[in-house]
Amino acid sequence: MKILYDHQAFTASRFGGVARYFYNLMVALQKKGIDVVLSVWFSNNHYLLSGSEFPTQPFRFFLGPMRTNMLFSQVNRLCSTIQLLRKNYDIFHPTFFHPYFLNFIGNKPFVMTYHDAIKDKFGERFGHLDNASKEQKKVLFDRATHIIAVSENTKNDLIQIFQLDPAKITVVYHATNFRDLVVPDTFQLDTPPSYLLYVGTRGSYKNFAPFLKAITPVLKKHTHIQFICGGGGDFNADEKQLIDSLGLSGRVIHYFINDLVLYRLYQHALAFVYPSLYEGFGIPILEAFATGCPVVLSNSSCFPEVAQDAALYFDPESEASMSEQIERIILDEPLRQSLRQKGFLRQQAFSPENMVNQTLNVYRRVVAQVS
Questions:
Q1: CATH topology identical between 2-175+351-370 and 179-349
Q2: Contact 98/7 with Cβ under 8 angstroms?
Q3: Is there a contact between 128 and 115 (Cβ–Cβ < 8 Å)?
Q4: Given Cys at both, which of 33, 98, 216, 257 links 262, Cβ 3.0 to 4.6 Å?
């Protein structure tokens, strides 16, 4: 079996959950002896450049970031189009929602992964990397041979928003490499003695600013507790102004991260907090579970499905609920220990092996279906 993946998630994205999902999937399939082809000529993607499995050429932003990315996206689209026209593959798996390939794929089967319904469910209320319209996606989903959803909640969103046959959708949960990550004992990280940890981007639906406002009284009451933000870029001017206005200067700290830094941040945190209003899955939950970090989550979208009883929950639109549960996790050491143990147990449902095998089963069913 030969699987062809395209350039979309890799051209302009240096990091990011979608690129990482596809990279980990492709590497794991190769290890199982599956013939994997990634049609990318040029990319600055960290995952591609840090490995040797899919050689690519990095590029400089000689026209500025936006124009340069647009240029190399067109060049890589040509690469993908050539591979599509050669027809030397069994299944095509596009990595995002641009419909360019429909003009070239003919009767070859293709599978799509739907990561979240944030834009399709809430429209322009939330900013989102996804710039494809519902109408574009509807055309793709109707034409697709099969669709992978990353949670039951996301599958239900697909059915409701796009009126799709449930039989056309298979749920395949995400996994994390943190389960098997080896962190050298010599790698130590300078962190505050006590802190809460937030990970990732902080805009719009991530609910960062409302959450920080809600827990400010708790942080001021417990002056030994810091608040660390891992990744997501340095604080912008608005965020710095917000932190200053809340009287939290020096208490809210940003860390640039890689896997080793992030692992240590989870490992030493009082708790990982995830106040998003909506997500398709939430890989940081699994990362926290794998490192023995207690988890405090929104009670929205897929979070209860993913974490079940291994997390403490709050209403992400209630200041009182957020502050109450953060106070509780700070004060209750037996609760934190219980969540650590439950997290270790819950992570067993999300092994990389399960994710790869279930995806491979989808591919095999598709090949059998069109044979």
A1: yes
A2: no
A3: no
A4: 257
Q: Are strands 91-93 and 146-149 parallel, antiparallel or unpaired?
A: unpaired
The topology (CATH level 3) of 179-349 is Rossmann fold (3.40.50)
Residue-wise pLDDT for 318-332, tens only, equals: 999 999 999 999 999
Do 104 and 42 form a contact (C-beta atoms < 8 A)?
Answer: no
Tens of pLDDT along 276-330?
999 999 999 999 999 999 999 999 999 999 999 999 999 999 999 999 999 999 9
Q: How many whole angstroms separate alpha carbon 312 and alpha carbon 202?
A: 21
Q: Which amino acid is at 33?
A: G
* CA gap 93, 110 in Å, rounded: 6
The count of other CB atoms within 10 Å of the CB of residue 280 is 21
Query: Residue 271: CB partners within 8 Å, gap ≥ 6?
Result: 196, 197, 293, 294, 295, 296, 312, 329, 330, 336, 339
Three-state SS for the chain is CEEEECCCCCCCCCCCHHHHHHHHHHHHHHHCCCEEEECCCECCCHHHHHCCCCCCECCCCCCCHHHHHHHHHHHHHHHHHHHHHHCCCCEEECCCCCHHHHHCCCCCCEEEEECCCHHHHHHHHCCCCCCCCHHHHHHHHHHCCEEEECCHHHHHHHHHHHCCCHHHEEECCCCCHHHCCCCCCCCCCCCCCCEEEEECCCCHHHCHHHHHHHHHHHHHHCCCCEEEEECCCCCCHHHHHHHHHCCCCCCEEEECCCHHHHHHHHHHCCEEEECCCCCCCCHHHHHHHHHCCCEEEECCCCHHHHHHHHCEEECCCCHHHHHHHHHHHHHCHHHHHHHHHHHHHHHHHHCHHHHHHHHHHHHHHHHHHHC
What tokens does 8 get?
């979309």
pTM greater than 0.85 (yes/no): yes
Domain 2-175+351-370 maps to which CATH number in 3.40.309.10, 1.10.760.10, 3.50.50.60, 3.40.50.2000? 3.40.50.2000
